[in-house]
Specification:
Blueprint: H1 19-31, H2 37-45, E1 66-69, E2 72-74, H3 77-87, E3 94-98, H4 104-111, E4 115-120, H5 123-135, E5 141-144, E6 157-162, H6 171-175, E7 177-188, E8 193-200, E9 206-214
Parallel strand pairs: 3-4, 3-6, 4-5, 6-7
Antiparallel strand pairs: 1-2, 7-8, 8-9
Helix pairs in contact: 1-2, 2-3
């Protein structure tokens, strides 16, 4: 069952954040190749302007990444939609996200009714994301930790989304993927990154597919308060 959003009155009805503006974003995503109506409806429903600073609210429904502080960004809606669309291909139930950031990607997954676990290394971002997710009524489990470690005690996961780029796929995360599950992650350095899909076979081997060129912040070690 898709969770019902509990929006505050001031969060809706404004011209710059109106349903009409969200509908235009969805049409741009559809024209750009996003075909899964479940994902498009999640993007249409979710108030992205609540996941950015108030000063950037007028740009919340542009198809672009926006800064959220601490040298991090909220991902471009097309990238969020594409990663989510790919993840849904294997009908996951339990999903791990590495890099909570603003909480927007986790919220999209929660809107779709998935059981979401998310890990963020920057404590301040995680505190803000938790507050947003609670206000919207989502039961997302979150942890302040080094994302490269994952969250093994709740694994294996049917799907894993990584929202920061590493030079190569992280073995610890691959190890937490269930047989038949998919991991979707940006791979590469600052000069060249690709969105990669990895599917784990029954014999433990993996099938890797390159999906599209992307630009993400780096996946860093350790934690920050």
């Amino acid at each position: 069952m898709t969770p019902r959003l509990r929006l505050q009155p001031e969060a809706v009805g404004m011209g710059m954040t109106s349903q009409r503006v969200r509908d235009r974003l969805v049409e741009r995503l559809r024209e750009s190749g996003i075909a899964d109506e479940r994902v498009l409806n999640a993007i249409r429903t979710l108030p992205r302007h609540l996941f950015v600073d108030e000063a950037l609210a007028t740009r919340a429904y542009e198809d672009t990444a926006l800064p959220i502080g601490h040298s991090q960004t909220i991902s471009q809606p097309w990238v969020v939609a594409r990663m989510t669309e790919v993840l849904l291909e294997t009908a996951p139930k339990k999903v791990l996200e590495i890099g909570t950031g603003s909480g927007y990607q986790a919220a999209v997954l929660a809107v779709l009714g998935l059981e979401v676990y998310t890990v963020e290394r920057i404590g301040d971002l995680l505190r803000q994301a938790r507050k947003r997710l609670r206000q919207l009524g989502f039961n997302v489990r979150s942890k302040h930790d080094d994302g490269r470690i994952g969250w093994p005690e709740h694994g294996p996961y049917d799907g894993i989304i990584v929202t920061a780029a590493a030079p190569a796929l992280v073995p610890a995360l691959v190890g937490q993927l269930a047989v038949g599950g998919q991991l979707v992650a940006p791979v590469g350095g600052s000069g060249s990154q690709s969105l990669v899909r990895l599917v784990k076979r029954e014999d433990g081997s993996v099938e890797e597919t390159t999906l599209a060129p992307v630009v993400f912040v780096p996946l860093l070690a350790g934690t920050l308060d």
